[in-house]
Amino acid sequence: MIEVPVYDRQGTQVDTVSVDEDLLGGEVRPALLKQAYVMFHANRRQGSARTKGRGDVEGSTRKLYKQKGTGNARPGPRRTPVRKGGGHAFAKSRTREDWRQTMPKKMRRLANRNALLAKLVDGEVKCIVDLGFEKPSTKAFKDLMKSVGIDRTCLVALDPEDRNAALSARNIADCSTIRVDQLNAFELLNHRYLIIDKAGLEAFLDGSVWAKSEEAA
């Protein structure tokens, strides 16, 4: 069992949450995490890059000057690939590349849980009693981060109804917010720390957060 300390907003430990490693995969699985990370990263690629060939570039097809007698290299039109502003020799012509990858649902969920386990093992999960704010306050959220020792990039997992907390954190550099039911291996591994409230952590561990998400869908 991993004992996760629970802090109040002043950084004082007030409680603990016991986490069973078996619920999160038992051990950190680097190969699974890499596969999930590569999949999420590939699925973010737009895949619509195109370049213009010599036939797509605007300009005349007239020969720039006569073939012989000038002492210069033999010219072609200004749209040739060897000239500045000309077309690409091997232009990308496809309108969309498909980089999408897939993983079975059970593997994706195990990777998400395993990424959380990696954070817990390294002591990079900061569990707060309550992240509810009466009104948005960037300063108050910065003070909260400082009190629990956040000194690098941070991911804040919030309940969808915690609007004030999301507004408080969104303008802080190197701080990103995400819904608890959308926590994934890519975002967890892209940030050094995770801030989550006690209710959100327990919902993630017992799986109730996934049930709510599927009901809403």
Can you give a write-up of this model?
By secondary structure, the protein is an alpha/beta fold. The protein has helices at 30-43, 105-121, 138-147, 163-169, 185-190, 198-206, 208-216; strands at 2-7, 13-19, 125-128, 154-158, 175-179, 193-197. It is elongated, with a radius of gyration of 26 Å. A six-stranded mixed sheet has the order 2-1-3-6-4-5, with helices on both faces. A hairpin with a 5-residue loop joins strand 1 (2-7) and strand 2 (13-19). It has two domains: 2-44 and 102-216, Ribosomal Protein L4, Chain: A (3-Layer(aba) Sandwich); 46-98, no CATH class. Residues 213-217 have low confidence and may be disordered.
Short description:
The protein folds into 2 domains: 158 residues, Ribosomal protein L4/L1 (Ribosomal Protein L4, Chain: A), CATH 3.40.1370.10; 53 residues, no CATH class. 33% of the residues lie in helices and 15% in strands. Strand 4, helix 4 and strand 5 form a beta-alpha-beta unit.
